[in-house]
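Handoff note, outgoing to incoming analyst
You'll be picking up this chain. Sequence as last confirmed:
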Amino acid sequence: MQICKSFIGTMLVLGGGLLFAQSMEMPSMPSMPSMSMPEMPSISAPTMDGKFYRPSLPSQTKNGKTTTDTGSAETKATESVFTDGTTTDDILITLLSNANLLSASDISDLYDTGSFDTLSSLTGLTGLTSSSSSTNLSTNILLRQILEKLNELKVEQNKASAAQQEVYAAKLQDSETFKTRNPSILRFKINGYNVKDSIIETFFSEPEPDGSFLLTGDRRYFVNNKSCTETFYMLFKAVKSNGSTTTFSVTPSIAQGSENKGSYVYKLCQCKDVVAEKTGNLVVIHYNGDDVTTDLLLDIDK
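Most recent structure output, in case you need it:
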């Protein structure tokens, strides 16, 4: 009986242990979260269609301004600017680059080497000797025609052979020896400033039968210790004559190595209805505008 009780007790202990073991089962490990790698963005190369690929760049406008979305930057030091008293937009493009800038020295060399003798000898000019061509627009167009023709002669001369260049050099030397005229600027003041002192070269064309002529001058001056250069052109177009006195309509224009709107001659070139009077050898301009006053006295020695 005692053995039976011990056996039953043992069994109860073992059964309880099993029940306890079942109730103390270790929890299962949590499952790892699924991780997916991010997709790489797709990169598509430009397709080749027989043309070179070019990135987009800001456009360059004719007036020297590079336009962007945020503003504009104006390039001034590397371009020549050509303006006149009638309009500043329709520009003679062939005179804009520094390499092609038509100076008074250039025109003088063309004349001295025999490339032309009078303005009327330049082919293709219209209205030079017509007294009806007295408006600002017509004289402006005429001046541009003259400068364009002279520039063509300069380009042609620069392309001449070495032998021809020697001929030109000999003619230049002879021209210094056998000069028959000595025209000059006697006085040139704008707003009281003595422009004459800054002129380093001048050219006066031979007067036409009606008295019309071209005056060109090269200037060098300093602004904030920086050397500036410019060439001015003045077409004196005869519009009236009574025998002893001739009246001219004057069209001024200017070409600058770098734009300087503060130049006194630049300011004069913005003026319209400039008139000159000739008596004997002397030609005078007395102009009084709102912002510009000009006193010019020439001896054309003719």
